[in-house]
Amino acid sequence: MVSGARFDDVGLPGAAFHDVNLAEALFEDVNLSNARFDDVNLSGARFDNVNLSGATIRGARLVDVSLDGDIRGLRVWGVDVVPLIDAELNRRQPGREKMRPTDANGYREAWALLERLWPETIARARALPPELLHESVDGEWSFIETLRHLVFATDAWVLRTVLGEQSPWDPLDLPHDEMHDTPPVPRDRTVRPSLDEVLVLRADRMGKVRAIIAELTDERLAERTTPVAEPGYPASDSYLVDDCLSCILGEEWEHRQYAERDLAVLETS
Questions:
Q1: Which one, 66, 90, 115, 174, has least CB within 10 Å?
Q2: Where in the chain does DSSP place strands (E)?
Q3: Measured on CA atoms in the order 244, 249, 254, 256, is the torsion positive or negative?
């Protein structure tokens, strides 16, 4: 019986666990690639930032299961359900289909839509007591943390990669939780800046993206960025401009959806 156990710095490749109770155990930064699970009870389990690429699940009992993330080629009873889900999400979230542009004009259209939508979300947040904007809903980032993360994403994928700034970071930048500490990228979860403080940063970063997209050409999208010399995130490498800007569109769209979802909960608290 090892209920609630935690395993740190243990190497057990090829180990077998038979008739073992691991209820409430914590597996963090663990490699289970090519592992096999037979007659395993995972009811109530929570998986955050897991890589299930190439996984095969047979004879599963999936009742009231929630699944989100980078999902491609998901087959249920032999049917690729991702296109069906994609179509339904596009129906529920008008404009979502514009977040995957294939040319410069498509980027301009997508960015203009984001700039129209975000003020509505900000106005909704302003209607709440300021302290609620620091509250987490179901373990997710608070509204302020979400905005801080978007500042980080822009610093990483636009200022650092596309514009070539060596160290574009602001002390309020907030990287994704699964990213390892990467000096000199800041990560301070204890600060509680006001909404207006973070919006000043957001306005600056969104203005820089706006300027890039206004001058964007199809040829520029196909170019690769010049690696920066200083350490940071992403790694000093060359990236397609298209990939960098596509990342920002995805971040902006998805995190606004998350924010709207959580604001709805906070409004009833």
A1: 66
A2: 75-76, 79-80
A3: positive
Domains detected in the chain: 100-266 (1.20.120.450)
How far CA 6 is from CA of 1, 22, 181, in Å, comes to 13, 10, 22
- In the numeric block, the tokens 């897991």 are attached to 50
Please state, in angstroms and rounded to a whole number, the distance separating the CA atoms of residues 243 and 60: 36
The CA-based angle 127-133-135, given to 5 degrees, is 135
Tell me if residue 19 falls in helix, strand or coil.
coil
Report whether 154 contacts 248 (CB < 8 A): yes
Return per-residue pLDDT of the chain as tens, 269 residues: 566 666 666 677 777 777 888 888 888 888 888 888 888 888 888 887 788 888 888 888 888 888 887 888 889 899 999 899 988 998 999 999 999 999 999 999 999 999 999 999 999 999 999 999 999 999 999 999 999 999 999 999 999 999 999 999 999 999 999 899 999 999 999 999 999 999 999 999 999 999 999 999 999 999 999 999 999 999 999 999 999 999 999 999 999 999 999 999 999 98
Q: How far is CA 193 from CA 56, 108, 187, 189, in A?
A: 45, 31, 14, 11
How far lies 248's CA from each of 157, 206, 239, in Å? 7, 10, 14
- Cβ burial of 151 (10 Å; 0-12, 13-18, 19+) is buried
Asked if residue 177 lies in contact with residue 226, where contact means CB atoms within 8 angstroms, the answer is no
Ordered alpha helix ranges (H), 7-103: 82-92
